[in-house]
Known about the structure:
There is one protein chain. By secondary structure, the chain is an alpha+beta fold. Helix content is about 15%, strand content about 20%. It has one domain. The radius of gyration is 16 Å and the shape is globular. The model has no long low-confidence stretch (mean pLDDT about 95).
Amino acid sequence: MQRLYIATEKFDPSHGTSWDKYVEWSGLTRLAEVVSLDGMLCPTALGEIKDSYWPYIVNEDFMLNFFVDLEFLLSQLTDTSNLNILGVIRSPSADLRSFGWDQFTFMGYDLLDKNVDISALTNCGGFPDVFANEELSCVGLIDDFNRAVEIRELLHKTHPEERHADCDLWAVFRRQDN
């Protein structure tokens, strides 16, 4: 299990009208915030990949915003007050709710399309034949590992033509001092 890190912009009610429009469109009325790797809802804080990043990032298509070194990532950020510093694990094989990760709190599981840019949970308009909006936590994630695995499998089986339904499972942790 490789631990990866990313800094994303927060998306919550402080965004005013854009938050209100999102909640109305998505029907996710129970959300207090979106904590996700979805780049449309929670853009990465470091948009430009600098040459100096190469030794510290995942050198794989669609993964260039993920860092393998937390301290380096933090050194590139001037202000983290409006950011989520996330620790993530792609395709975990077991439940990580009680996984010990210093300075990070388990937030839930996200389902990201293969391009690692759209969450099937919070940015596809819902898949009511696969999961109910009420199954999502107050940050838009699935709390239960087995249910997240089941949703991932059902999405691909039920919606094979939908590219956002072909997902990877991600365990999402948030740095505690953010």
